[in-house]
Design a protein that fits this description.
single chain, alpha/beta, Rossmann fold, 2 domains, binds NADP nicotinamide-adenine-dinucleotide phosphate
Length: 307
Amino acid sequence: MPNELSGKPVSLELNRVCKTLIADYQLKPCMVLIQVGEDPASSFYVQSIINSGTKLGCECRLHTLAADTSEDVLLELIETANNDDSINGIMIQKPLPRQISDSRINLAVSPNKDLDCLHPTNLGKIMMELEGFLPCTPAAVYYCMQYYGIDPLGKNLVVLGRSNVVGKPLANMLLWKKAFANATVTVCHSQTRNLSMITSQADILVTAIGKANFVSAEMIKENSILLDVGINEVKDGSGASLYVGDVDYKSCYDKALAITPVPGGIGRITTSVLYLNLLKATLLQQGQNKSIDEYIALIFSAKRKEY
Ligand SMILES: NC(=O)c1ccc[n+]([C@@H]2O[C@H](COP(=O)([O-])OP(=O)(O)OC[C@H]3O[C@@H](n4cnc5c(N)ncnc54)[C@H](OP(=O)(O)O)[C@@H]3O)[C@@H](O)[C@H]2O)c1
């Protein structure tokens, strides 16, 4: 295993899976992407999703709504997309403006088209270990471990952060009784006491707290594996923006066995997972019961023999 766990080869491999399935099943996947407001960071991310989709052969229909759009208007648009057979998946760019409730929107998206995997039905399936969509960022961590052969079976795995988008679903996935799971999971949050004591016992530490360079070398175990989900904007000496993770990469690099970089680590994999979810939705709607996750497990297992 390399010391730096780049997300690039993982995302390239997942993209290859997407292209193969699209060709084999002659699919024309189509998603609707809804952005409310024109926050520059969101617009940048949305554009990169559209570009990736074009390269993969997926159609991406973008709806950009004004920042003061009411919740009812957004709900109506979602309902139209739910009922349109030419649309296989729906993604709503977050954060949403204050007048719109995240949880009402998550509930409104059809569970069969829920590319973000935020509908309670799909989150429940994760807890019950049932096949279905995977939330993009937790799945990026899971596929990264699979690709690099990091098996958490029986290991102390600490997740920093308990959000509904990252920490909670990821902790549940790592408890699954299947390959590349079966971990002994501890979840920490802002109210956790003696945090360093817990993190310094982690064989694998996943950080998702949104605090730049928060985890220092003193907080980690020797030869542990660090998977950094955090993406935090900081300013350099000249005032220019740059992005760093929740882990202080420089101070932890030598002590850790392996570490994901930011940028270019877990974040690099998430868009590929979004398109895997679109393929899952498309196959499901065509009545195909192909298990994409089993297919990926096979391909990654062959790939690991190369190290
Ligand atoms: N790579 C990607 O594609 C991707 C996708 C999504 C998010 N992210 C990044 O991942 C990070 C987390 O995102 P999120 O949406 O999960 O954030 P979030 O909703 O703000 O949740 C942050 C979590 O961290 C916990 N926390 C905050 N400060 C802490 C501290 N000092 N010690 C321990 N726990 C602390 C919070 O605890 P409480 O629950 O007690 O408040 C909360 O559970 C962000 O940097 C975000 O940009 C990356």
